[in-house]
Amino acid sequence: MNRRTLLATAAFAIGLAGAASAQDSTKVGFVFVGPIGDGGWTYEHNQGRLAVEEHFGDAVETVYQESVPEGADAERVLTQMALSGADLIFTTSFGYMDPTLNVAAKFPNVKFEHATGYKRADNVGTYSARFYEGRAVQGHIAGKLTESNIIGYIASYPIPEVIRGINAAYIHAKKVNPDVQFKVIWAYTWFDPAKEADAATALIEQGADVILQHTDSTAPQAAAEKAGNVYTFGQASDMGEYAPMPRVSSIIDNWAPYYIDRVQAVIDSTWESDDTWDGIGAGMVKIGEITDAVPADVKAEALALKEAIANGDYHPFTGPLNKQDGTVWLAEGETADDGTLLGMDFYVEGLTGEIPQ
Amino acid sequence: MDLSAINPVVLTASLMVAATPILLAALGELVVEKSGVLNLGVEGMMITGAICGFATAVETGSPTLGFLAAMAGGAALSMVFGVLTQFLMSNQVATGLALTLFGLGLSALLGQGYVGVKPPATDRLDLGPLADIPVLGRILFSHDLVVYVSLALVAGIWAVLRFTRAGLILRAVGENHDAAHALGYKVVRIRLMAIAFGGAMAGLGGAYLSLVRVPQWTEGMTAGAGWIALAIVVFASWRAGRVLLGAYLFGGVVVLQLNLQAAGVAVPVELLSASPYLVTILVLVVMSADRGRAALNAPACLGRVFHASS
Question: Where are the transmembrane segments (chain B) (predicted)?
Fold first, then answer.
């Protein structure tokens, strides 16, 4: 072999290796709103990311950025990720909606998946889980457990997803306990342990003996544990370290199957922008173990309710239901359509207080 | 609206807990400023204390050791500021701001492995029958040790500054460092001790946040408490008793706004959330309107660089 062929072979080998690695490795980015150790929302998204890594092995490389503020910073992070060669980027918080669309417009070849949003583009799909199905089960247990008939609710932002959760929980708590009353605190944050702890304490001091939360940290669980006889539910993640009391059950977001499915679609070049909204039935929402702090009959009812929702026999928003002002929303037997649910901006009848604008 | 749901006794008890971190940090800063040093790094020292205390409590299982480690951590960080400003004559404002940024970054680094970990519980002090006294028992005798320490420190610092020789020397250094130096007092050494004390107090306040009030570790969890502590020192016109008042006022507004929301008071949430800061600004404006007195009370050498040759 003379020198020229040697060089040519080497060049060919390098070229081949380069092409192979570029083709083999799909880069998937994740943008998180909190730290991956929050024990809640972001933790579960990160579990999904880890499942993708495990499933695809060397074929997929994942990158992530935690604690990204919603707003201009998100746009910077997304641009950086797209520039660094990501093929698919999951943006995992409602507030990333507009930043995702803005960056997606600049990078038509990069695919984006935005969680819990409603705006789509050719290269931006959306996905969410029907958390309200889990909230219905929570509401049922909460209504049965409360002795003071006051249930505290730590809400994050007044967006449809959160309002849906409050309504679903209230409807099912009210069904089993007509005297039940909800006290709602809007924390205006997804993740601020000090504020969440203070909010939980304020609710407990005002007589709440069940606390539901739509914020991501375990601080309310810690506050409830300190207060003693207060029940809580894990949010987004199992929060099992607080079981069996105060955490008596939980809603677990299970993103792994969806993430693996979408990454596979990108690898196969079959990815298309769409909207996915799955619930208990599809396995995207799971109900964490109901502990022994819940009486056996209540546990059985809750599991039956979960089963009925999972196989489609029962819809958590089934009429007759009125809006807060008393006007009819759903007639007897009528179920809510997804459009109304996605844009929900009203309380159902019986809830007190106003949704902040 | 149902204001009867708000129990003033319970509210008072929880405002004491909410105010303790800023009270501790503000007391430390009061002593530092009385010695003529302006340390704007309170926030950085607080959060460093928060993670030092948290990590130590988790590793050893003892909250008490955690609080001690937090004080050590805060004091150690404040020594960076001390060396820079006292020996290297750097600008105190710039160095203090840098200390805050440094502390936030350092704590995030130290805290990497501690996110989502549960710390050992800090017990309430068992005061036996005292806790059963109606009203007073709940407000005064149902807290953990740190709350009582913070109250004792208010009295202690007031007494030391007012009645003791050590307090007089500290004030002399803060009022006129050249005169104090001429009298033979070690200005730099005294100031370094004051800075270390301020750091330890800020660290303790931070640890109270991460070990008792939340209890959890997260990046940036002090969320501006250090700045509030700084404002409270000015609000208090450098008096220990008024620091207590200012801290409890601030803690009270924070707790009250959450309680008002839970009680369903129809006040815009954004306004309620901003109210603690609005009240702080308002009080500062009122205080500084009375220019003469506020200015009279400020240590005369506050923020001025001292060198023995000058």
Answer: 6-25, 37-58, 64-84, 96-115, 135-161, 192-211, 217-236, 243-260, 266-287
Partner residue opposite B213 with nearest CB, options A197, A203, A356: A197
CATH of B3-297, one of 2.60.120, 2.40.128, 3.40.630, 1.10.3470: 1.10.3470
pLDDT at residue B295 in the model: 59
How far apart CA A14 and CA B62 sit, in angstroms, is 58
Q: Evaluate if residue A14 carries a pLDDT over 60.
A: no
C-alpha B294/C-alpha B238 separation (Å) is 9
Q: What CATH class is the domain A3-130+255-278?
A: alpha beta
Q: Cα(A206)–Cα(A151) distance, rounded to whole angstroms?
A: 10
φ, ψ (nearest 5 deg) of residue A281: -55, -45
Place of tokens 């922008």: A273
Distant-in-sequence, close-in-space partners of A320: CB < 8 Å, separation ≥ 6: A328, A330, A331, A332
Q: CB neighbours (10 Å) of residue A160? A: 17
Candidate from A43, A193, A207 with C-beta closest to B5: A207
CB B191 within 8 A of CB B36: yes
Q: A73 and chain B: CB distance < 8 Å anywhere? A: no
Is the ipTM above a cut-off of 0.90?
A: no
This prediction has a pTM of: 0.82
| pLDDT tens string A220-247 | 998 898 888 899 999 988 888 888 889 9
Domain ranges in chain A are: 3-130+255-278, 131-252+286-342
CA distance B143 to chain A (A): 12
| CB pairs < 8 Å spanning A and B | 92
- Torsion (CA) A172, A174, A176, A182 in degrees, nearest 10: 90
Q: By CB neighbour count within 10 A (0-12 exposed, 13-18 middle, 19+ buried), where does A121 fall? A: middle
Contact between A219 and B6 using a beta-carbon 8 Å cutoff: no
- C-beta atoms surrounding A328 within 10 Å: 12
Under 8 Å CB-to-CB from B2, ≥6 apart: which residues?
B263, B264
A145 Ramachandran zone, left/alpha/beta (phi>0; psi -120 to 50)? alpha
CATH superfamily label, A131-252+286-342 = Response regulator (3.40.50.2300)
Q: What is the pLDDT of residues B57-88, one digit of tens each?
A: 999 999 999 999 999 999 999 999 999 999 99
pLDDT single digits (tens) B101-133: 999 999 989 998 887 788 888 877 777 777 777
Task: State the smallest CA–CA distance between residue B241 and chain A in angstroms.
Answer: 26
pLDDT tens per residue, range B207-235:
999 998 888 888 788 888 898 899 889 88
Rounded CA gap, B85 and A72, in Å?
Answer: 36
Tell me the three-class secondary structure of B183-220, residue by residue.
CCCCHHHHHHHHHHHHHHHHHHHHHHHHHHHCCCCCCC
Among chain A residues, CA nearest to B217 = A193
- The alpha carbon of residue A211 is apart from the nearest alpha carbon of chain B, in Å, by 12
The whole-angstrom separation of Cα A124 and Cα A89 is: 9
Domain A3-130+255-278 shares a fold with domain A131-252+286-342: yes
A152 band by pLDDT with thresholds 50, 70 and 90: very high
Q: A201 touching B, CB under 8 A? A: yes
Interhelix angle B187-208/B8-34, rounded to 10 degrees, is 160
φ, ψ of residue A334 to 5 degrees: the values are -80, 145
Per CB-CB distance under 8 Å, the chain A contacts of B11 are 205
Q: Give CA–CA dist A296/A300, Å, rounded.
A: 6
